[in-house]
Amino acid sequence: MSSLRKSWGKMRIVALPLIRAPPPQRIITYYSFKIVPPPAPPPPKDPPPPGWLPQEGVVRWATLKVDGTWAGWGKAETGSWRLRVFEFGERFLDRLDFEEGALKRVNVKTAPPTKVPDDLEGAEREEAEAAWEKLEIPLLYPPSVSSAPTALAELRALLERRIPLHNKGFYTWLLIAPLTAPFMIIPVVPNLPFFFCAWRAWSHYQALRGARHVDALLQNGKIVPVPEPTFDAVYTDAKVEEIDAPTPDPNAKTDAGSEGDVNQKPKLIVTRDSLGHAMRALDMQDDDAKDVLRAYEQAMNRLR
């Protein structure tokens, strides 16, 4: 097995349509990008002497530091400004686009590569090219409500929307952050506006990297749609609900150029209870299950 193949993890994409809408309205789908990192290499026999930089890397160290600080604020005394900021932040996170949260979880360092690195030569490169040629990333979808071409088209449409959005969001918040410098003169309380702007820029950047990585894999034909019949229970047990939405243009055309069911309203094709089938089938942890329910709530609110 090539050294390249040992350095990437396994990846799986799950697509769960939440709301089905006739053209020209778009389908709203929840995506889960699951990456299992490769086994950690054995520690060196003679580890280097500790330096002033953290061994896990500056970015990893900073991320853990911020996460620990934020969790500590959630345990602050009742009525304190730290707890109030934490509660406000949690409410804001619930309103953050679920698509952004999903793309942020694509770790490009451990995900399958978009191409064979250019620095490989000789037999090592040939072995790496052979391994990369066989690479396939399954895109699991429920066959009762979707198809292979539709699953790929919806994923492609998602990336086409999110890449420019996160690119603009990254530079926008990056430019706004320096304007918060005057808040540094406030004693005791940290410069929360600056940290918020920096976090939004970082969040958009992470989502942008993830979206570009998935897009490159898609363009190279590495993402393969695979029907997953166990997901059908999500839809067979759900009562189809109609969502109040503006009536579509009756003169609108479908993607195929013919008149479709444009007079139909968008339909919610899942329920909170039926999504439990997907959670159990995917063996979701609490954080993942929370993301699914957040996507469900946001999908409904967008079409009301």
TrEMBL record:
One of its GO terms (cellular component) is mitochondrial inner membrane. The chain crosses the membrane at residues 170-189. Keywords: Membrane, Transmembrane, Transmembrane helix. Residues 242-267 are annotated as: Disordered. It comes from the Eukaryota. GO terms for biological process: potassium ion transport; proton transmembrane transport. This is Mitochondrial K+-H+ exchange-related-domain-containing protein. It comes from Mycena metata.
